[in-house]
Design goal:
about 325 residues, alpha+beta, eight-stranded mixed sheet, five-stranded mixed sheet, globular
């Protein structure tokens, strides 16, 4: 990486996966035409559907919450990676208003004793909702602190009774081609797929999320339900889930398929393992005095080492990145 003075804004080529950065120009041109046709400025669209979500309270969960200053709702809901709606950070807030979240079902199957398809209203009542404040660290070098509302993913997995052959959990996200302009981009193969080891998925920190800041999850943040796996880079926390499949063999996730030399299966936050095109040793917390905030040191496992390090005992975390 080329050297630069502290506080300088890094060029897009250093903070965005190369395939995304190189394909942005064409996609933005198409998106600009669509926005012009809609006749509504991006900021107005964001205000229209990001602010008035129904309430979704949960019981405070201090044992699983960090004490860091929380990122504002505005930043959380307008600075996103959700490539199905576009490649720039503001694109999801501009375009996700068209996402259809009702009716919605999630199929949980594979190596389970009781495969089931759940509708979203059943899932909302499956376990008590909790308010948890988690750190989110993205591979691009920025971070947030988000007050999620949800319950442990384990509560759902126990409903279907995994078999002895179940070793991994694969997550598939929705594709609504008429509502998601980003799926026209060849950056990834759609639908988006992520996966965890079963013991990772059953860990009490792995959260099935339905809301944030005490309200129903905004579309651009992965409505109506998503994952939050706080010790891993953000792309592991798949959004808008429609299928959860338990399998015996390690799945190939979307980013592993797209760029296997850059994105591994585990994606644990590790300041000692640089991305091939940028360091992971520091991060910029969104909302802290803008782009010129001094960077902070990235914590091993995003600060959750005491809770999750035992999952990887004896593993080479540089080889298993």
């Amino acid at each position: 990486m080329s050297s630069r003075k502290p506080g300088n804004v890094p060029p897009p080529s250093e903070i965005t996966p190369e395939r995304v950065w190189q394909s942005r120009r064409d996609w933005m041109a198409r998106a600009g035409l669509a926005a012009a046709a809609a006749g509504l400025p991006g900021w107005a669209m964001r205000q229209a559907f990001a602010q008035d979500a129904p309430p979704l309270p949960g019981q405070p969960s201090p044992q699983f919450s960090v004490m860091d200053k929380q990122t504002s709702f505005k930043d959380i809901s307008t600075y996103n990676n959700y490539y199905e709606f576009g490649l720039d950070k503001g694109d999801p807030a501009d375009h996700a208003g068209k996402l259809q979240t009702r009716p919605w079902t999630v199929t949980v199957d594979g190596e389970v004793q009781r495969p089931q398809t759940f509708d979203i209203d059943t899932l909302l009542k499956l376990a008590p909702m909790e308010d948890r404040v988690y750190r989110l660290r993205c591979v691009e070098g920025w971070s947030m602190v988000i007050p999620w509302v949800g319950y442990p993913l384990a509560a759902l997995l126990k409903q279907v009774e995994p078999t002895g052959n179940a070793k991994y959990v694969e997550f598939t996200t929705v594709v609504q081609r008429e509502n998601m302009p980003g799926v026209r981009s060849p950056v990834l193969q759609w639908p988006y797929v992520e996966a965890l080891r079963l013991d990772e998925a059953m860990h009490p920190l792995a959260l099935l999320v339905f809301g944030l800041y005490g309200k129903v999850l905004p579309n651009q943040n992965g409505a109506p339900l998503r994952l939050a796996v706080p010790w891993k880079y953000g792309f592991k926390s798949a959004k808008s889930l429609v299928r959860i499949r338990l399998v015996e063999r390690q799945p190939t996730s979307s980013w592993m398929q797209a760029a296997p030399s850059e994105y591994g299966f585990y994606a644990n936050v590790n300041p000692d393992v640089p991305h091939p095109r940028w360091s992971q040793a520091t991060e910029r917390r969104i909302g802290e005095d803008g782009l010129f905030t001094p960077k902070r040191k990235t914590l091993m496992f995003n600060g959750y080492a005491d809770q999750v390090a035992s999952l990887y005992q004896g593993m080479d975390l540089k080889a298993n990145y």
